[in-house]
Amino acid sequence: MAFIAALATVLCFNQVLSKDFPKPENCDVPDKAQIEGKLDQLFRNLPKEYLVDRFRTELYPGAIFLEASIVSRLDEFRPDRPYETFCRGNDTVTLFSIYSKYPIRMTIPWRLCSGQNGTIDTSVDRVRYEGELVMTKTQAGTQSKITNLMPVVMDSINVGMTGAGEAMHIIAQMLGDIVSRPFRALWTMVVTSTVQETLDKTLKTLN
């Protein structure tokens, strides 16, 4: 499962990176200050942590289970460079970059069929994302959405485990193949989709 997820992530990012993004046009955007103020407010209101329920799985059928993950310190993301606002057809687009100087953490609870349990604790010391806020004016009002969110800086992943006695050794053996490149790709996929979700949900509260 980890290899398939990793492969899908790499293909997805390659597809995004190969897009021919429009170059910023020199056009008049009268509500530029309002748009950028909205982005500032968006990043200030990101939650401290977010529950990722959709990645529950059986690491080993009937024996080792991974529960809902928690991604934390999302509220540490801050803009690290000036916004770029321009027109793309009828849309107003603002390019942004957010960076966390604190580790972004993902905690994955595990349990065995015997009842023993613990956590897989992962973190990345430096993470930076780039993306777009796209605003479209319609008869019903202005619609806003976050698009093209991509990780552009991601340090090596730190992995630790908690558990009881020999259970720790068993799980470490089972994780041997995924605590490497595939696990990094899986981590990237989960955290990136989580950042996207939190941005979308927080943005809706500001509209």
UniProtKB/TrEMBL annotation:
Alphabetically ordered keywords of this record: Signal
Designated name of the protein: Putative secreted protein
UniProt keyword annotation of Signal present: yes
Signal peptide start-end: 1-18
The UniProt record lists the keyword Signal: yes
